[in-house]
Design goal:
single chain, about 260 residues, transmembrane helix, membrane, Transmembrane protein, BPSS1780-like, transmembrane
């Protein structure tokens, strides 16, 4: 007997079109969500940084633990943004919704993030070291120029690969957390969305760069506000880019774990 089974993950759709000027509106939406519960958001951000710092200090595996755990914490802040957007109360515990609901898939996103960063570094190092060796063989001034040029090209390659990795990571926690998209599908779809609306995300990246420097001025305390604003902006960007195209999923019951 042929029994049709419901697929575990919804099929990824093509991302929607976004005007470049909407990047500013996303940040405004992020600020609006932050102002709904600034104290709770600041506490979440503080715990966020403490957890990443503690993971980074773990012996032997600390360098890998923080990048792998990052999507879990981002997903929790996105869950908090969704809760506020629905008109409900935000709690500090929402930061751990990613662990409660999609831990396995979010850890896979973090693992792919780490592997991608290592691959980018290895490729750039291979290019740079090859140029240095070739320069040593050639010798003299031409060799030094070849080595310097190769090192600069390696840095350029790393920058491009890192930007691609950030594009793949940008929407992935939202797609996994809020629409149960499979981890690798979420990262590929996130990269497609950023490419599809490249100008909007260049504008957003430039704005975030400026805001990050401003947030660091008061002894870094501004990051306790900027991180929730970024989470709200990411949620707003996800809503505009994907929410109209994906099926609405029922809100999971407390303690439910779909994995």
């Amino acid at each position: 007997m042929n029994i049709s089974r419901r697929p575990r993950h919804p099929p990824p759709p093509a991302p929607g079109d976004v005007a470049p000027g909407h990047a500013l509106q996303w940040l405004a939406d992020g600020w609006r969500l932050f102002m709904k519960a600034p104290v709770i958001w600041a506490l979440q951000a503080f715990i966020f940084f403490i957890i990443l710092a503690a993971l980074g200090m773990l012996p032997i595996l600390g360098w890998a633990a923080a990048p792998i755990a990052l999507p879990l914490l981002i997903a929790g802040m996105l869950s908090g943004a969704q809760v506020l957007d629905r008109g409900e109360a935000l709690h500090v515990g929402h930061l751990f919704d990613g662990i409660r609901r999609h831990a396995g898939n979010l850890l896979l996103v973090g693992t792919f993030h780490l592997l991608g960063a290592l691959l980018a570094a290895l490729i750039a190092a291979a290019i740079g070291s090859s140029a240095v060796l070739a320069g040593m063989v050639v010798g003299s001034v031409p060799g030094a120029g070849m080595a310097a040029g190769g090192m600069m090209f390696g840095v350029l390659v790393f920058t491009v690969l890192w930007a691609l990795l950030m594009m793949a990571l940008w929407f992935a926690p939202a797609l996994v957390m809020l629409h149960d998209v499979a981890p690798l599908d979420a990262m590929m779809l996130s990269a497609r969305a950023c490419f599809h609306n490249l100008l909007a995300f260049i504008v957003l990246a430039a704005l975030l760069y400026v805001l990050a420097w401003v947030a660091l001025i008061p002894a870094g305390l501004g990051m306790l506000a900027l991180l929730p604003v970024i989470a709200g902006a990411l949620y707003a960007a996800w809503k505009e880019t994907f929410a109209p195209l994906l099926p609405v999923l029922p809100e999971p019951a407390d303690g439910a774990n779909p994995n």
